[in-house]
Specification:
Number of domains: 1
Order of helices and strands: HHHHHHHHHH
Radius of gyration: 21 Å
Shape: elongated
CATH class: Mainly Alpha
CATH architecture: Orthogonal Bundle
CATH topology: MetI-like fold
């Protein structure tokens, strides 16, 4: 209880809400790194997931690569990227590039797999009906498959964003900013109030991200599509789970 009270006291101290090490500055740093990583992951993974879901080509390979990516620890990915990024950019290669690269890799699998899952569970009769009407493959994907698969695809982005927000904390190990600085500095200084305040801030930001994107998902998809998307996601991901 004393530790919790101390962490809350640290959070409400006005001195910790200003300056380069202030809570607003650290939150902005954390969100910028996280958002940039998720956006790049969307640009990479979403088109791939939609394409393999629509065509069925290389699906086994892509899904297994995604599962391997999930198995790689984020800190391990940062360590692998670090020597290359440092050689490319001495200024940003020490902390920013490894963190950004690792968080992007973390976000790619759920986005790609969910996009694939949503497209593959679209009723094939609807797809064939579209072809019978003379629709091109791009039109079938954009007008038939994507609207139905949207709940699952957005769910993948939601999952990726929450994971990235929680894991970007590791960037502080390499000297990057963000909320992880409070945790690393708290350990180094044996300042446990700072440490637990950082933990609370990261947890709160991850929860807020979850709620915000859940609201976006509900606004983008009606009840019928949500239920269909949930069933599609469960059925396809069950078949992808390694034995």
């Amino acid at each position: 209880m004393d530790l919790a009270a101390g962490a809350l006291g640290w959070l409400v101290d006005p001195a910790h809400w200003q300056g380069p090490d202030g809570i607003p500055t650290r939150i902005v740093e954390h969100l910028v790194i996280s958002a940039a990583s998720v956006v790049v992951a969307i640009l990479i993974a979403l088109p791939i997931g939609l394409w393999i879901g629509h065509t069925g080509r290389f699906a086994f390979l892509a899904v297994n690569i995604a599962n391997i990516g999930r198995a790689i620890p984020s800190y391990g990915a940062m360590a692998m990227i670090w020597p290359i990024s440092l050689a490319v950019s001495p200024e940003y290669g020490l902390n920013l590039i490894p963190t950004f690269g690792a968080m992007t890799l973390l976000a790619i699998p759920p986005i790609m797999v969910n996009a694939y899952a949503g497209i593959r569970e679209v009723d094939r009769d609807l797809v064939e009906a579209g072809r019978g009407m003379g629709m091109r493959e791009r039109q079938i994907l954009g007008r038939i498959e994507l609207p139905i698969a949207l709940p699952v695809a957005v769910g993948g982005i939601r999952t990726a964003a929450v994971q990235v927000v929680a894991t970007t904390t590791l960037g502080a190990v390499l000297g990057l900013g963000g909320l992880g600085r409070y945790i690393i500095d708290g350990i180094a200084r044996r300042d446990f109030e700072r440490l637990w305040a950082g933990v609370l801030l990261v947890a709160a930001l991850a929860i807020l991200t979850e709620f915000a994107l859940a609201l976006v998902q509900r606004r983008l998809t009606g009840p019928g599509l949500r239920q269909r998307g949930d069933r599609a996601y469960r059925s396809v991901t069950e078949t992808m789970t390694p034995a």
